[in-house]
Amino acid sequence: MDLSTILGIIAAFGLMIVAMMTGGGVLLFVEPASLVIVGGGTIGATLVHYPFKEFARALAVGKKAFFHRDEPAKETIEQLIRFATKARKEGILALQSVMGEVEDTFFLKGMQMAVDGQEPDELKVMLDREIDYIQERHETGADIFIAMGTYAPAMGMVGTLIGLVQMLQTMDDPSTIGPAMAVALLTTFYGAVAANVVCMPMSGKLKNRSQEEVLRKTLIAEGMRCVLAVENPRIMEQKLHAYIPPKHRESSFGKKD
Predict the structure, then answer these.
(1) Which residues contact 138 (CB under 8 A, 6 or more apart)?
(2) Looking at the predicted structure, is the pLDDT value of residue 256 above 50?
(3) Considering only Cβ atoms within 10 Å of each terminal Cβ, which end of the chain, N or C, has fewer?
(4) In whole angstroms, how far apart are CA 148 and each of 56, 164, 193?
(5) Which helix (H) or strand (E) holds 139?
(6) Helix 200-228 with 73-90: angle, nearest 10 deg
(7) Distance between CA atoms of 237 and 84, rounded to whole angstroms?
(8) Could you count the other beta carbons within 10 Å of the beta carbon of residue 241?
(9) pTM for the whole thing?
């Protein structure tokens, strides 16, 4: 569970609810017609922009904003160094005995390729190609949330225009002015909230998560290339440390960079 995402949503909606309650109650801001206009219109416009398959995939990727297990790059490097040391002493086939320690499917794929006798450079090329695909998929998911954040305020404006037209057509009946104005204003409100509290922040979080995942997989790809090439673990560690900030570099050999 991503605590920052949960706390951010609770804080944003919590403050809005408190402001609503001080002005007469939350129910004043509940308008089903406005919700349908903004929610349905945003989804509809997004489906026009993107294929349904991409939209459904973006929703699946969106879960990463809420459910994410932090895997520090330092731990990945330490694991790679341990495997490199084992392979250097006992041979590449010795990696079969430690595959059970690895849960990441990308990492397992790299280890299996190494055990199967893949050439170091070919292994790196194949893993890099998969990283490119993962990055492209994540970018598409983030772009879809940006699109939704763009369409939501626009649909709110459409709802506002609908409400104003309805209000102007019934000016002779004062009892209809209030409900029509409520639809007009609340659709703008819903669109702004959907864009600036949900869609845009989720897009930013997904981009950050993508960068973290790509970094980890890049470390794995380079590390497995070094393992397969039977490079000195100390030299391998120095290469992998180049991918992370200096403050996170801690040597597995008892020295700090």
Answers:
(1) 61, 206, 207, 209, 210, 213, 214
(2) no
(3) N
(4) 13, 24, 12
(5) helix 120-169
(6) 20
(7) 10
(8) 19
(9) 0.80
